[in-house]
Specification:
The complex is a heterodimer of chains A (398) and B (378). With 398 residues, chain A is an alpha+beta fold. Chain A has a domain of 195 residues: MetI-like (MetI-like fold, Orthogonal Bundle). A four-stranded antiparallel sheet of chain A has the order 1-2-3-8. A two-stranded antiparallel ribbon of chain A has the order 4-5. In chain A, strand 2 and strand 3 form a beta hairpin. In chain A, helix 2 packs across helix 7, helix 2 packs antiparallel against helix 10 and helix 5 packs antiparallel against helix 6. The two termini of chain A are 50 Å apart. Chain B folds into two domains: 204 residues, Periplasmic binding protein-like II (D-Maltodextrin-Binding Protein, domain 2), CATH 3.40.190.10; 100 residues, D-Maltodextrin-Binding Protein, domain 2, CATH 3.40.190. A five-stranded mixed sheet of chain B has the order 13-12-14-11-15, sandwiched between helices. In chain B, helix 3 packs across helix 9. Classes of the chains: A alpha+beta (398), B alpha/beta (378). Chains A and B meet through helix 1, helix 10 and helix 11 of A and helix 1, helix 4, helix 5, strand 12 and helix 6 of B.
Chain lengths: 398, 378
């Protein structure tokens, strides 16, 4: 018992079970213990079931030959390659769809978000209708619409639409002429490197000049970014004995077009669906962000004589971005995860390829952990990058 | 705070992965020490033999089914002719007939079945987790599935083979070969052996092609029908039935005569459910035997007075065939009476009076040049 004579501040302190500091730590410990126990129970249950059925877990199967084909791939892959490589093909397809999708959805979202606040009645209503319609219908339905309703309703191969002579559009995809490296390509590489370095040096130099002058440089100076590296690359091209790149034209051979670059209907429908769907959500995020910037900012900028585009670019957007970035990150993550719906319209993304691997090997637990791990890595990387960007954009408080 | 969250999540993932990886070598090992007496010229030695034994109780599942009062049967839900949910919610199809037959054998009542429609991907997992007792969903019997997935397959109920369907205006006839499909886009459903056979066969034919893989057979057929693919590959039975059921104009398409694989479609139960596996086997054999003897659901009662001992044993008039399986002795009588013999089940779902008009072919009785042959029930 505490000495009653000298009731020091410490002695009369709150009992342990009412001490907020203790409770805080204690509740966290309890939570962790519960999570671990539940996890251990689930794991033991899984192991017991696997054992009962005589199934062996392990990742050894990744080294076995996959012996199935994959229609679209960014790296060389043949049926004789391993399951591990098949996974990689799927991962790269998912990453590609995510990156292109995120870039295009951002553009669509920003344009539509700004359009929703346009003073022009028609533009405003179109943007509002877009957001209303797209946000309130399921993505899977939209993908089916784009795939079965639009893309594969295009003309048949024999009746392909020819654009500009060598660009073909039919229900099997869009075929574009595409440059392929020739034997002199290696000799040209140093020039390409030099061009890259030159444009970076130019950027540094222009920044320095701008700081010295303390006023914006004429816009046409920006052309230098294009002209200087292009000049270097052209010089290298001219010095090479024959062209380092040759254009590969698509030609109808047998049943289908061959050569050139092919954008498949599945990829096109998937990207269209994802971009338009996510774009609608991003539009709302952008609109909210812009509206969060106080109206007096616009008025002040106008009073300073800035043009409407300048107001948006220099005053509104930098401030709106702080509100926009966190919810934007969630939309990016949604897009990456929604890309699993690719399986419904025949695009071989990670989920689709994993499905085939799962069916062939029967390794349910392993395949599911690989899928989860892969999406976790993609998502965490995305949010990590976005958080870094967010930190850079956040209000610097002194 | 945020960085901590990342570290924690990363660590948890790592732990999960490691745990699964560690599970690598675990199997149930029960050491049974058995003394084997060896009689030989050498000094009498006792050698210890270690045998790996799986802990199974062969009759457990059967008891569960009997206690429950119905059989849970995993079937296809959208495959006309084999397993299909009708507009009124009832199930029909060739595979479904066997579910009814097993229920008739076990309970003497063909209606005591609960159906679960399963996708190609779900089907084996549903069996492994015990969600269904038996799988009757046009599944190909392969070594990998038998061993790796720990299943026991029943007798083949339908001898199928993978085939290729193309548009007639390709131009193509039945005689068109796989080599002629050079450069083709080929629609295929995922989660089947079809994908593997396609790869093998096209490689053997030396033809380049692009697979377009769909999760769902309906989507694959729709994409093919719209012209997205030059060809679609699946089991011949599927192509024949779905051509009639799904294509805008069935006559525009032709199924090539080339046989790309052997696809013995068989029911399956989980390895270890031996009693149930026996019932699955002998019910099917009973239906085949009944057809061979000319016993149908119409005339089965007249056979009860037959003097033929084979018929008597089959219908349970004589002998204890049912009792040996833990069933009533007249279990095959019940199956024939309520469901019919093998041929009846076939004709009702796939025969000449159906839109699919699949010839019996390999699925005819051995006495008619087919492969259907039942071991003796005695």
């Amino acid at each position: 018992m505490a000495a009653p004579a000298a009731p020091s501040l410490l002695r009369t302190a709150i009992p342990l079970w009412r001490d907020l500091r203790v409770l805080r730590v204690f509740s966290q410990v309890v939570f962790v213990v519960v999570v671990v126990l539940v996890g251990a129970r689930l794991y033991a249950n899984m192991r017991a079931n696997l054992e009962r059925q005589g199934l062996v877990t392990g990742y050894d199967f990744l080294g076995n030959p996959a012996s199935f084909d994959i229609g679209e791939r960014l790296i060389p892959y043949a049926a004789s390659d391993t399951y591990g490589r098949a996974f990689l093909v799927g991962v790269l397809n998912t990453v590609m769809v995510s990156i292109i999708g995120i870039a295009l959805a951002t553009v669509a979202g920003v344009v539509m978000g700004v359009a929703r606040l346009s003073p022009n009645w028609l533009i405003r209503q179109i943007a509002a209708a877009y957001v209303l319609l797209i946000r309130n219908t399921p993505l899977l339905l939209q993908l089916f619409f784009w795939y079965f309703g639009v893309v594969i309703q295009l003309p048949k191969v024999k009746q392909s639409i020819a654009l500009l002579g060598s660009l073909f559009l039919n229900q099997r995809g869009l075929y574009l002429p595409w440059p392929v490296p020739t034997e002199t390509f290696d000799g040209w590489k140093p020039y390409l490197m030099a061009a890259l370095i030159a444009s970076f040096a130019l950027w540094l130099a222009l920044n320095l000049i701008q700081k010295r002058l303390d006023r914006p440089l004429p816009a046409w100076w920006g052309l230098g970014y294009l002209l200087v590296p292009a000049g270097i690359a052209a010089l290298g091209w001219a010095l090479a004995p024959n062209a380092p790149l040759a254009v590969d034209f698509p030609v109808l051979k047998g049943l289908n077009f061959k050569g050139g670059l092919r954008v498949t209907p599945e990829l096109f429908a998937l990207l269209t669906g994802l971009v338009i769907y996510t774009g609608a959500f991003i539009a709302e995020v952008v609109r909210a962000g812009i509206q969060a910037v106080s109206k007096s900012q616009t008025e002040a900028a106008r009073a300073l004589g800035l043009k409407p585009m300048q107001i948006l670019r220099l005053v509104i957007f930098p401030q709106a971005l702080r509100v926009i970035i966190p919810p934007l990150t969630s939309q990016y993550l949604n897009l990456a995860k929604n890309s699993t719906l690719a399986v419904a319209i025949g695009y071989p993304d990670l989920y689709s390829v994993s499905g085939t691997i799962f069916n062939q090997t029967g390794k349910a637990v392993e395949v599911v952990t690989i899928i989860m791990g892969s999406y976790l890595v993609v998502s965490l990387t995305t949010s990590l990058l976005m958080n870094i960007y967010n930190k850079r954009m956040a209000l610097v408080e002194r | 705070m945020k960085r901590n969250a990342y570290i924690t999540m990363g660590a948890l993932t790592a732990v999960a992965l490691v745990l699964v990886a560690c599970g690598g070598a675990a199997t149930v090992e029960v050491e049974v020490t058995r003394v084997v007496e060896v009689t030989s010229a050498a000094p009498a030695a006792t050698s210890q033999v270690q045998v790996q034994v799986q802990v199974v109780t062969p009759g457990e599942r059967m008891q569960t089914i009997k206690d429950r009062g119905n059989l849970i049967c995993g079937v296809h839900g959208t495959f006309q002719g084999f397993g299909y949910v009708e507009a009124d919610g009832s199930y029909t199809g060739f595979d479904v007939e066997f579910c009814k037959a097993w229920a008739a054998a076990i309970f003497g009542d063909a209606t005591k079945v609960e159906y679960r429609s399963l996708t190609a991907k779900e089907r084996f997992t549903a069996l492994q987790t015990g969600e269904v007792d038996v799988l009757s969903r046009n599944s190909t019997w392969t070594l990998t599935r038998d061993v790796d997935l720990a299943l026991t397959f029943g007798p083949t109920t339908f001898y199928d083979g993978q085939a290729m369907m193309v548009r007639k205006d390709l131009p193509a006839t039945e005689e068109t070969t796989l080599k002629d499909l050079e450069g083709a886009n080929i629609c295929v459903q995922t989660g089947t052996t079809t994908e593997l056979n396609l790869t093998d066969q096209m490689k053997a034919a030396g033809a380049e092609y692009t697979p377009v893989v769909f999760e769902d057979n309906d989507a694959a057929f729709a994409a093919y029908d719209e012209g997205r693919c030059d060809a679609i590959t699946s089991d011949r039975s599927q192509l024949a039935t779905l051509r009639v059921a799904k294509m805008k104009n069935p006559d525009d398409h032709v199924i090539l005569s080339v046989v790309m694989s052997k696809e013995p479609l068989a029911p399956a139960v989980l390895q270890g459910d031996d009693r149930l596996a026996d019932v699955v086997h002998w019910t099917v054999y009973g239906m085949i035997q009944a057809e061979e003897l000319g016993i149908t659901s119409q005339n089965v009662d007249s056979f009860l007075t037959s003097a033929d001992p084979v018929v008597k044993r089959l219908l349970g008039v004589e002998g204890e065939m049912g009792a040996k399986l833990g069933l009533s002795n007249d279990f095959i009588y019940q199956v024939i009476k309520q469901v019919g013999n093998y041929g009846e089940a076939y004709d009702r779902n796939l025969g000449p009076d159906t839109p699919y008009q699949l010839a019996r072919g390999q699925n005819d009785l051995w006495t008619n040049g087919g492969l259907m042959y039942a071991p003796p029930i005695r």
